């Protein structure tokens, strides 16, 4: 009996070691000969192929930075959450949608249909009811697909609109979570604003558009570092004081996505187009100011000593690519895009996955020091590669 117990304990210890070792080995092995891509088209093809593979088999993004005894986090349900996966899958859809504008790919079409069938009922409703506003960017990613999505999945989009409405606080803007009702997070800008603008235009709902504009204007007023146009992680609606790190890289990315995609979705005739364009102009100056010589942005953009972050680089590169459509920003933004793209090529593994993205944020002021692959970065790299 003691022999069997000893063997069981040894097998358990071995299993725990293997579970811990697999991610470490995967990163080590994947980084052999990293950055081998020299031609942009070759790089674009490689990252797109990986994005297609990941759409229905999205790598799990863990909540913690813990790399030892991670089985404990798994058993406690602290290893990952669906909300994190929403914005991973959303970015892949956005990137692959951009690719489809100029390319035909039957395998991709099949993978997209497979994804839609797995997540939505034939009626156009969600199979699993969304509970957090993170789903807004996923809905936006779906709406960008060239398959008459507004008609096919209007019930699902209506549900996202109702969910967002249920998070509107006393100040008239949207909270990140109901139990954090006194704070407005920069993440929320990216999660909801592009969806609200597109939904409002498609379904003639001006209330939607006005909410997105208010969310952006309020953040500009209270969430920015005065004189620098540099967003903080959040701000408190009662006192208007920024909270968390000012200059958090992916926070700039969330603001960039929400602002630039909202601006692009608005027709020229809408009064808010000029308002958002002026915000794009000011934020472009900030973004270019903090781009490193290597072409990247760091995870803390205003600290040159901090580590570079591919998720920040991909999202801010996308922002600049669209901001360059404004004539007087064309030259400076296009140069920023070139440098960002070249950097992302250098940190792409030989299998086509873009490496060195900061992991999931834990709380205000508590940031991940784990840097690896991130489907969110992959999607925005694909998006960028198809416009630059």
From TrEMBL:
The keyword Cytoplasm does not apply. Keywords: Hydrolase, Membrane, Transmembrane, Transmembrane helix. It comes from the Bacteria. This is Glycoside hydrolase family 88 protein. SUPFAM superfamilies: Six-hairpin glycosidases (SSF48208). InterPro entries: 6-hairpin_glycosidase_sf (IPR008928), 6hp_glycosidase-like_sf (IPR012341), Glyco_hydro_88 (IPR010905), PolySaccharide_Degr_Enz (IPR052043). It holds the Pfam family Glyco_hydro_88. The chain crosses the membrane at residues 6-29. GO terms for molecular function: hydrolase activity. It comes from Paenibacillus soyae. GO terms for biological process: carbohydrate metabolic process.
């Amino acid at each position: 009996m003691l022999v069997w117990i000893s063997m069981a304990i040894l097998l358990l210890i071995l299993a725990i070691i293997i579970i811990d070792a697999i991610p470490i080995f995967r990163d080590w092995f994947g980084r052999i000969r990293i950055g081998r891509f020299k031609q942009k088209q070759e790089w674009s093809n490689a990252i797109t192929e990986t994005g297609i593979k990941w759409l229905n088999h999205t790598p799990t993004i863990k909540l913690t930075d813990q790399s030892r005894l991670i089985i404990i986090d798994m058993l406690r349900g602290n290893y990952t959450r669906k909300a994190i996966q929403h914005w991973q899958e959303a970015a892949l859809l956005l990137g692959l949608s951009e690719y489809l504008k100029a390319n035909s790919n039957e395998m991709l079409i099949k993978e997209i249909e497979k994804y839609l069938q797995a997540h939505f009922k034939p009626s156009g409703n969600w199979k699993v009811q969304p509970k957090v506003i993170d789903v807004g960017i996923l809905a936006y990613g779906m709406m960008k697909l060239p398959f008459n999505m507004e008609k096919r999945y209007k019930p699902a989009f209506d549900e996202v609109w109702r969910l967002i409405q249920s998070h509107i606080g006393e100040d008239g803007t949207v909270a990140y979570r109901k139990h954090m009702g006194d704070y407005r997070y920069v993440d929320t800008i990216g999660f909801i604003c592009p969806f609200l603008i597109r939904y409002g235009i498609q379904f003639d709902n001006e209330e939607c558009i006005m909410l997105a504009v208010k969310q952006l204007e309020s953040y500009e007023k209270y969430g920015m570092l005065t004189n620098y146009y540099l967003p903080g992680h959040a701000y408190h609606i009662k006192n208007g004081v920024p909270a968390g790190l000012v200059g958090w890289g992916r926070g700039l990315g969330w603001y960039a996505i929400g602002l630039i995609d909202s601006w692009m979705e608005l027709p020229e005739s809408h009064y808010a187009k000029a308002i958002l364009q002026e915000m794009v102009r000011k934020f472009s100056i900030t973004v270019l100011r903090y781009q490193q010589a290597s072409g990247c942005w760091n995870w803390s953009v205003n600290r040159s000593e901090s580590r570079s972050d591919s998720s920040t680089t991909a999202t801010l590169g996308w922002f600049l690519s669209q901001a360059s459509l404004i004539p007087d920003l064309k030259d400076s933004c296009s140069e920023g895009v070139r440098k960002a793209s070249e950097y992302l090529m250098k940190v792409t593994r030989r299998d086509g996955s873009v490496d060195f993205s900061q992991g999931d944020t834990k709380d205000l002021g508590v940031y991940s020091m784990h840097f690896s692959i991130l489907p969110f970065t992959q999607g925005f790299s694909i998006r960028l590669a198809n416009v630059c």
